[in-house]
């Protein structure tokens, strides 16, 4: 935010653009200044001093998500070198809790945006599909802090979940059929509420990952 005389106008504009209240924007602005060291932009290095993230097994993925052009709505792939306050608000809006004043349509939209943000964390090469390799990568990182789980076990957890995803998304596969990965539409399917599937592939890592992410915003 710029000079004092225009600050309130800027806040008003940001309220309209982001849906945060002016109090929330001011609070997030303090957080932004703290992270950036009072500079107009934040770079990846600025996250080195966030104690909440120190022990987080997917720390690097969370930080990357802040600079991911897809999340910043600046392009289909790639990462930004630095983000300004408005970019920061765009990212923080994915962490906003679902509000009781929202109508059904807003709730669905909010949920979808959160899932899209999660999807981007898995789909690290931005090709629109979560492959087995990408899925393994996240699960291994998530479980890396647990001394009771060997890397091999993490891998088999990921492989099992992926097989289940394949059966939910593709149905019966031919023996020589290759599963290319989960698309965003597939990722949404088990969340629709109309599937009686007893186990849900994106539910396995989804909510826990989102909880992990929320640390970045507090
Ligand atoms: Ca991919």
From TrEMBL:
Topology with respect to the bilayer: Lipid-anchor
Residue intervals of the EF-hand domain: 110-145
A cellular-component GO term for this protein: nucleus
Protein keywords: Calcium, Cell membrane, Cell projection, Cytoplasm, Differentiation, Lipoprotein, Membrane, Metal-binding, Myristate, Nucleus, Protein kinase inhibitor
GO biological processes: cell differentiation
Keyword Lipoprotein attributed: yes
InterPro entries: CHP3, EF-hand-dom_pair, EF_Hand_1_Ca_BS, EF_hand_dom
Predominant cellular place of this UniProt entry's protein: other
Keyword Hydrolase: no
Pfam families: EF-hand_6
Family in the record: Belongs to the calcineurin regulatory subunit family. CHP subfamily.
Function: Functions as an integral cofactor in cell pH regulation by controlling plasma membrane-type Na(+)/H(+) exchange activity. Promotes the maturation, transport, cell surface stability and exchange activity of SLC9A1/NHE1 at the plasma membrane. Promotes the induction of hematopoietic stem cell differentiation toward megakaryocytic lineage. Essential for the coupling of ERK cascade activation with the expression of ETS family genes in megakaryocytic differentiation. Also involved in granulocytic differentiation in a ERK-dependent manner. Inhibits the phosphatase activity of calcineurin.
Quaternary structure, from the entry: Monomer. Homodimer; disulfide-linked. Interacts with SLC9A1/NHE1; the interaction enables an optimal Na(+)/H(+) exchange activity.
Protein's UniProt name: Calcineurin B homologous protein 3
Upper classification of the organism: Eukaryota, Metazoa, Chordata, Craniata, Vertebrata
Gene: TESC
């Amino acid at each position: 935010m710029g000079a004092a005389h225009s600050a309130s106008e800027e806040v008003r504009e940001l309220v309209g653009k982001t849906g945060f209240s002016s109090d929330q924007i001011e609070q997030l602005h303090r957080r932004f200044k703290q992270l950036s060291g009072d500079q107009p932009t934040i770079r990846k290095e600025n996250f080195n001093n966030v104690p909440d993230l120190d022990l987080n097994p997917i720390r690097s993925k969370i930080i990357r998500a802040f600079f991911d052009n897809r999340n910043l709505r600046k392009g289909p792939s790639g990462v930004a070198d630095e983000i300004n306050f408005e970019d920061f608000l765009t990212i923080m809006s994915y962490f906003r809790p679902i509000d009781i004043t929202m109508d059904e349509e807003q709730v669905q939209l909010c949920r979808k945006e959160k899932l899209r943000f999660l999807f981007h964390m898995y789909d690290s090469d931005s090709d629109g599909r979560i492959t087995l390799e990408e899925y393994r990568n996240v699960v291994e990182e998530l479980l890396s802090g647990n001394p009771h789980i060997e890397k091999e076990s993490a891998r088999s957890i990921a492989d099992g979940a992926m097989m289940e995803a394949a059966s939910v998304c593709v149905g019966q596969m031919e023996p020589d059929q290759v599963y290319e990965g989960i698309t965003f539409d597939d990722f949404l399917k088990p969340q629709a509420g109309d599937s009686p599937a007893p186990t849900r592939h994106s539910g396995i890592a989804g909510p826990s990952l989102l909880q992990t992410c929320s640390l970045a915003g507090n």
